[in-house]
Amino acid sequence: MSEDWNTRTKLVHSGIRRSQYGEVAEAIYLTQGFVYDSAEAAEARFIEAGEDEFIYARYGNPTVRMFEERIAALEGAEDAFATASGMAAVNAALFSMLKAGDHVVSARALFGSCLYILEEVLTRFGVEVTFVDGTDLAAWKAALRPDTKAVFLETLSNPTLEVIDLKAVSDLAHGVGATVIVDNVFATPVFSRAIEQGADVVVYSATKHIDGQGRVLGGVVLGSRQFIRKTAEPYLKHTGGAMSPFTAWVLLKGLETLDLRVRAQAAGAQAVAEALEGDPRLSQVIFPGLPGHPQHGLAMAQMGAGGTVLSLDLKGGQAAAFRFLNALRIVTISNNLGDAKSIVTHPATTTHQRLTEDQRAALGIGPGLVRLSIGIEDPGDLIADLKQALDAV
């Protein structure tokens, strides 16, 4: 039935499980275990649990299952497994399917923690990882091999907002039998068409737009039922990266307003980018929604919007960036994004500080770069705040 619903209806009603009390708001099942009517029933459930049968909260929970079904309906995925954080989702998507000797091709421009998993942890366990310029299809083609097991990328890179041609990369990867795993946080579930465009596995940090109100950590892995139940679930239920029922309930409430919030944030980001483009104190405004962005056409075809995040490159380097951040009155300094509150961070000294100066330079993360996540405040107020902070620089 939910397949016929439009996005906002899915975000309110998909996956509902009501108890005998007929509650309007989803119930929070705060339990770590479940009771069986008999020893035989326990045995049968451990052999194969039914759709509404649960064993242990690390394996699944009714509230968590509501969240999984709702986000899967939104994404157009067959199934989903909710995790304790976005990085738990990235870790599970990769580690559940890889073993020593496997080969992975990844875009080079990644969030610092994603880069750490690929560059440091996977290689420590014998997985070979090749990094490429994500926007260069020839580089992807050259790096892919008959033994490539997986491809990993951010559809929009953090924080330089490069847009990768997901369909083209997926076609190349599928040509050698590789699984395409995408971190889709910046695209958001609202603008995502990742599975339609060829992704096999989609991961989100639900901490970002899905909660979007600074309350909880969470993540989710989405894909085919075969991948989720036969590959991801065994890894997750035995390694313990499960989502708590209370977190799932908060995220269910977040999903109800997700479309409204994200569309308002994207419109605000577009207005801010247009207002700041060409400012003499900035060497660059990076936003896929601007016609001057190198992948503007691709972003519009792939997402239909520029997203909720933009990056500003201030002339004057780190000193100018810090003066700018410290002069802001509405926009808050934090390292999160996708929140109802507008947030700014300085990647070179926070999210990407672990990288060497040369590595940051190769990714386009200079000392004057700041990442700006637009919230749901009035865009006019945000523009005024940003301009007065630039005056302080």
Would you write up a description of this structure?
- Helix content is 42%, strand content 15%.
- The chain has 393 residues and is of the alpha/beta class.
- The protein folds into 2 domains: 2-254, Aspartate Aminotransferase, domain 2; 258-392, Aspartate Aminotransferase, domain 1, CATH 3.90.1150.
- A 7-stranded mixed sheet has the order 1-7-6-5-4-2-3, with helices on both faces.
- α1 (7-13) packs antiparallel against α3.
- The radius of gyration is 21 Å and the shape is globular.
- The model has no long low-confidence stretch (mean pLDDT 95).
Give me the secondary-structure topology.
Layout: H1 7-13, H2 39-47, H3 62-75, E1 79-83, H4 86-95, E2 103-107, H5 112-124, E3 128-132, H6 137-143, E4 148-154, H7 166-175, E5 179-183, H8 188-191, E6 201-205, H9 207-211, E7 219-223, H10 225-239, H11 245-276, E8 282-286, H12 296-302, E9 309-314, H13 317-327, E10 332-333, E11 343-345, H14 357-363, E12 369-373, H15 379-392
Parallel strand pairs: 2-3, 2-4, 4-5, 5-6, 10-11
Antiparallel strand pairs: 1-7, 6-7, 8-9, 9-12, 11-12
Helix pairs in contact: 1-3, 1-11, 3-11, 4-5, 11-15, 13-15
CATH topology of the largest domain: Aspartate Aminotransferase, domain 2
Under the CATH scheme, which architecture of the largest domain would be assigned? 3-Layer(aba) Sandwich
Which percent range fits the helix content?
A: 40-55%
Portion in strands = 5-15%
The CATH superfamily of the largest domain is known as Type I PLP-dependent aspartate aminotransferase-like (Major domain)
Instruction: Count the DSSP helices.
Output: 15
What is the C-level CATH assignment of the largest domain? Answer: Alpha Beta
Which structural class do the helices and strands define?
alpha/beta
